[in-house]
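Progress report, Aim 2. The chain analyzed during this reporting quarter is listed below.
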Amino acid sequence: MKALNKQTAPKSVAPERIIQFGEGNFLRAFVDWIVYNMNQKTDFNSSVVVVQPIERGMAEWLNGQDCLYHVNLQGRLNGEAVNSLTRIDCISRALNPYSQHSAFMALADQPEIRFVISNTTEAGIAFDPNCKFTDAPASSYPGKLTQLLYRRFKTFKGDKSKGLIIMPCELIFLNGHHLKECIYQYIELWKDDFGADYEKFKTWFTKYCYVCATLVDRIVPGFPRKEIAQIQKKICYADNLVVQAEIFHLWVIEAAENLSLRQLAEEFPANKAGMNVLFVKSEAPYHERKVTLLNGPHTVLSPVAYLSGVNIVRDACNHPVIGKYVRKVQFDELMQTLNLPMDELKKFAADVLERFDNPYVEHQVTSIMLNSFPKYQTRDLPGLKTYLERKGELPKGLVLGLAAIITYYKGGVRTDGAEITPNDAPEIMQLLKDLWATGDTRKVAEGVLAAKDLIWGEHGDLNTIPGLTDMVTGFLNSIQEKGMLETVKGIL
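Predicted structure tokens for the chain:
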């Protein structure tokens, strides 16, 4: 079998226009796959220089294959199962800024560079006051980026056309706003190092660099250990960097306040390439949509499915009863609480169900149930309260989901003998153990709903929500007496 490199496989050559901090599975299966498609389908004509954000990483592995690798997309598209392989060739090289510091800093001198993209984990966008301007490089990602920006400012003498469009992909809400704040903190920390350039550099960054907040969405399982032999046989290359991902992808990019949506879309023509990339004024409603319509149904379908004897998410969606329950929660309840156009919400919800129905992923419902109470608090409780406010009644599916979580946390065994093993913070586990020990479902419901310090935070004591205590108690009784499946049937 042939090694994979530019001697054995064709590799396109394009100007280096993107600096990418991060070389992991997600960026390679998401951003670099999108850039590859932009190159294929538009005149974007750009390559990516990958920068390893920490001292130990994959730069050497990538360079060993001349930065060539395959993306294996699996899932359903318009109802049809798809399992595709695409060779990605848009990464030009990978750098380790710790061992190749001069080459890393020299990126700032390349006139064609226009974009900075990153995924340095949620912890990566942080200000570390111990970083020094003279560090080679600064340990934090925002510190490295500030060093690079200053070098660019100096090289091009503050040329306003040499500012950069910065698009972080870290999974934190308003990631661009946090990154921009960190850069300002470094500019202040190092103002003495900048000397007479301090004000000019700060102004150049403020006016001519464009920091966008983004929301990314694609499940990326990563390296396909089980199937790698058959994949390599199929592609006829010994590719050791294959990355698997679902077909669905979404990138919501909020234009920086000093950059128009039109200019952003023209400079980064992902939607012209047919990619599901949205350029918006605010990512907030899309963040809320994802949390509500993707994470929200997951959180309640899991205990309902498991206590009904169903173990896999896909099987739950196709179950004659649980499938109807999932759709009720998603379309009839949670969707009614959002403020985006209904046709947009229906399309997203349909995509979510198609993702849940992925024939290539055995997604165990128990893997979703870790820390179910905090998840319900952030993903489902806001929808419950908004639904009550708008409709004047409680959403039965969401309340049943809460009762299912409470029942799941009782532990024990299912009717088929399978173990029920909840996992959450020790204090929450102890609370549920003590409440269930009373043998009184009313006390269980009241006790859980009253746990504002442990679970509900700013939402306070949920016993004050009209009718909630009674409905949760009723569902707990029904689950004990009739079982989960019959209880679900009662609300459909």
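The first strand starts at residue 2 and ends at 3. The mean pLDDT is 95. These observations will guide the mutagenesis work planned for the next reporting period.
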